[in-house]
Amino acid sequence: MLGRKTFEPKLFYQFSLEDRVPGDHLLRRVAAAVDLSFVRRLTGRFYSHTGQPGVDPVVLFKLALLGWLYGITSERRLADECRLNLAWMWFLGYDLDERPPDHSVLSKARRRFGVTVYQAFFAEIVRQCERAGLIRGDRLYLDSTLVEANASLESLGSRALVAQLAAVDEHLAAIWDENPPLADADGEPAGATEPVPVPASATEPRQPHVAGPSDPPNGRPGRANELVVSRTDPDAGLVSRDGVPLDLYHKVHVGVDGGPARIITAVDVTPGEVADEDLLERLLKEHEGATGRTVTEVVADAKYGTYANYRALEEDGIRASIPPHLGRGKTRAIPGERFIYDPAGDRFLCPEGQELRRQGSSCTARPGGGIIYRASPKVCGTCPLRADCCGTAKARTITRPDDSGLYDRTRAYLRTAHAKRSIRLRKCWAETVMAEAKERHGLRRAQYRGRGKVRIQAFGAAMAYNIKKLVRWHGRRPQAPALALRPRLQPPVCCLPVHFGPLLHVCQHCHPFSHN
């Protein structure tokens, strides 16, 4: 028989959100695995002990967390979804006859709390992951990604002119202070029944980004960014390179723990033109501070492979599984590793047996110093490998850092099986984390303007990622705590091989999944 469904509104319903939300729903698992009692402790100082009660800060955090978990970047859409999604209503603690908070409470919370509180939220989630046994701590993977700024190229203007406009705003603010509106006999402004509003531009002048103590030491903008700046987002940087269209970007830097859960332990945001290598030391300190562990190995791509980073890591007793940074446009078919250094003659020999002689008697002015070796242009001009070796240059040049053997020790370590394997694993540990944060947690484009607000968005995406990992590993047997506070050691000589399957034989000190 053909059925027909008719809708007849009822006056009374027997309905329970608790029964409608499935037991294996993501939000049920989040509520069971994550302890959010820290939210009131971190935000209590922002509320008065008298007055009308405000929205529960735990509800504010859960509402923002829903947007980060499901990649919803529009707060208006997020508030609308909360009224329609039964599981979200249950997660926030609201019943069917209650109205969830308006979207405006999220922007008010950001202004009230500031980036420091959201950073504390992130650190607390990392600590919960550490208590659950998901953090290994002794190995750190680094990576970065460009995030499109919430600003158009049409907002670009002369940096000098924008600075002058900021000075004009300050001048207008001073005029409003020195010349208050005239008042009548009753004390009210003449010709008005309400206080005369002060323009927002007069009280809050927009300042271009000025490098401060929190900025990277070598984060000096490129020449284009020295000349122009965005009027709507002065903290964004103009970037254009291979595979990246010309636009305004922020750059998000992350540190990922080397454990199998791949927890994000360090996050920072800089203008898009800031070099990746300038953030290595800062991310390393944030990782050690958040986890309480001692790092013995740092793994990153070639952008981090500078002399300064190699020297700093060696001084701290940390292994640098980082390929050397050759610089932009210096990748050749014949790499520098094929050139053999002759200490007796203080020269390099190319694959064809021709020598590269030392140029000058002193080190160059580049950071860390370096000695330049150059071949004869006549010899390179007749060489059959000239196109693959020299490129567009007349002769091949090799630079050897004057580092008392640091360059040679680093190259020797990078040739070991452990270093090569760590560099291969970086794609699985770091790059997949960044891809998931951009595709599923709304980090592809900046939701807000300004470095502080973009940092809040980056912390939120990292928290959502870590919470999903905490939910997935909730209830499993934690890792052995023997890795905590492990002393920094030099690269171990492979010994005591451990078998992981019929084809893989690695050292138990080197394998990221091994537990001593």
List the main descriptive attributes of the protein structure presented here.
five-stranded antiparallel β-sheet, 516 residues, six-stranded mixed β-sheet, alpha+beta
Describe the structure.
With 516 residues, the protein is an alpha+beta fold. Among the domains are: 17-113, no CATH class; 336-403, no CATH class. Helices cover 37% and strands 14% of the residues. The strands form four sheets. Strands 1, 4, 5, 6, 7 and 8 form a six-stranded mixed β-sheet that branches. The chain has a five-stranded antiparallel β-sheet with strand order 9-10-11-12-13, with no helix packed on it. Strands 2-3 form a two-stranded antiparallel ribbon. Strand 7 (297-299), helix 13 and strand 8 (319-321) form a beta-alpha-beta unit.
Set out the fold topology.
Layout: H1 17-20, H2 26-33, H3 38-43, H4 57-69, H5 75-84, H6 86-92, H7 104-113, H8 115-131, E1 139-148, E2 156-158, H9 159-178, H10 200-203, H11 223-227, E3 228-230, E4 237-241, E5 244-257, E6 264-271, H12 280-291, E7 297-299, H13 307-315, E8 319-321, E9 340-342, E10 347-349, E11 355-359, E12 371-374, H14 377-381, H15 386-389, E13 397-400, H16 406-414, H17 417-440, H18 451-472, E14 497-499, E15 505-507
Parallel strand pairs: 1-7, 7-8
Antiparallel strand pairs: 1-5, 2-3, 4-5, 5-6, 9-10, 10-11, 11-12, 12-13, 14-15
Helix pairs in contact: 2-18, 4-18, 8-18
